[in-house]
Write a structure and sequence with these properties.
heterodimer, A: 180 residues, alpha+beta, 4-stranded antiparallel β-sheet, rod-shaped, B: 191 residues, 5-stranded antiparallel β-sheet, 4 helices
Chain lengths: 180, 191
């Protein structure tokens, strides 16, 4: 027995409204998941980039420290070499001054330059020449001056002049000051 | 009079549809507030930290460049000093370089002395003969330009020896502490 004259159409669970709803929520969820995925990816890259940057900073810092050490060492070398060069120059000036100090009438046979003193051996025509022309300037430089004489064969006097300074290297310091 | 029927019926399909929409909407909200927004905050935090680190790296790189520039300038200005400290003392070469100032020059054994300011110091006793003190002054000037860092040390002795002056003094040769200078005796004479 037939109850209807029309042919029944096939019914589906996916009606137009359901499809519309799924498309809307599908797009929304897709956008949400994509955003979430993007954030996760960026977080991962930020973390790995930060680690890389930290490693680079550490390496750069190490390089800087090494260069600083190298700079400090070169400065130290420079300072020491300048000190030695100055000492050599001062020594040259000191020896020049010493030989300039000796008058023509007095002849030196030996000179010993010590760290804090000077010992001169020589020959002088008489004591007065020695006292006025050599001992006087020596006394103005050194704190302690001792002289001893003994006769030479030609009637002149051989002398030994021993001169000391209280402070070491005072000659050098004075000469440095003069140079400055 | 006709009676108006105000009641309306909602089909079961629409009720399911509404419930599904509500469920999906709740899911979207929960996902957004519970997952997406905290993750977004984390992203912002990480981005700020990343930029901060990047800025710090730029600062370090800039300072590294400046330091490298300073080092380069210092090295180029003090090339002679640096190489002089690196050069191992060679008595034969020293004599060859400086014998023109002396009638004779003799260097005795190289003694390994104590360290000074972190540098190795070697003592060399020198015995020489000069025509006049001027030669010695020239020698002292030349020392400051030699291939080594050499300082003449006290005591210095000058003694008349006929027409010549016999001089004896100690020299201190300064080198880098890592220097492999040995203390073996090396005596030679240059005439």
């Amino acid at each position: 027995m037939k109850y209807s004259y029309i042919k029944p159409r096939q019914k589906s669970a996916l009606t137009f409204e359901v499809k519309l709803l799924f498309s809307f929520f599908g797009m929304t969820l897709m956008m949400l998941f994509l955003t979430y995925g993007f954030l996760l990816y960026k977080d991962y890259t930020f973390v790995s980039d930060k680690e890389e940057i930290s490693a680079k900073i550490e390496m750069t810092d190490k390089n800087i420290e090494e260069m600083k050490d190298a700079i400090a060492y070169i400065e130290k070398q420079k300072l020491l070499s300048q000190k030695i060069y100055t000492q050599n120059t001062v020594l040259k000036d000191s020896i020049t001054n010493l030989f300039d100090l000796v008058p023509e009438r007095i002849t030196l046979s030996e000179a010993k330059l010590l760290k804090n003193g000077l010992i001169l051996y020589g020959i002088t025509p008489n004591k007065d020449v020695y006292n006025f022309m050599l001992q006087a300037p020596l006394r103005s430089i050194f704190h302690k001056t001792y002289s001893s004489f003994y006769p030479a064969q030609n009637g002149w006097l051989r002398f030994v002049s021993t001169n000391y300074m209280d402070k070491e290297e005072e000659i050098l310091e004075e000469n440095v000051d003069e140079k400055d | 009079m006709k009676k108006i029927n105000l009641s309306f019926t909602i089909s079961r399909q629409y009720i399911y549809l509404s419930l599904l929409s509500l469920f999906l909407l709740i899911f979207v909200f929960v996902f957004s507030f519970a997952v997406l927004i905290p993750e977004g905050k984390e992203y912002r935090k990480n981005r700020i930290e990343y930029k901060k680190e990047l800025k710090e790296l730029r600062r370090f790189e800039e300072f590294e460049m400046q330091t490298a520039q300073t080092l380069k300038e210092l090295q180029s200005k003090n090339r002679h000093i640096i190489s002089a400290f690196d050069t191992i003392f060679n008595p034969e070469r020293f004599e060859k370089e400086h014998k023109k100032y002396f009638s004779s020059l003799t260097l005795s054994a190289i003694k390994n002395s104590a360290k000074e300011d972190g540098f190795a110091v070697y003592e060399v006793n020198t015995s020489s003969k000069i025509n006049s003190p001027v030669s010695f002054y020239d020698f002292l000037d030349a020392l400051n330009k030699s291939s080594w860092i050499v300082g003449v040390n006290f005591p210095i002795e000058f003694k008349r020896d006929g027409e010549l002056i016999h001089s004896s003094f100690t020299m201190k040769v300064y080198a880098n502490a890592k220097d492999s200078n040995t203390s073996k005796a090396s005596t030679s004479e240059a005439k």
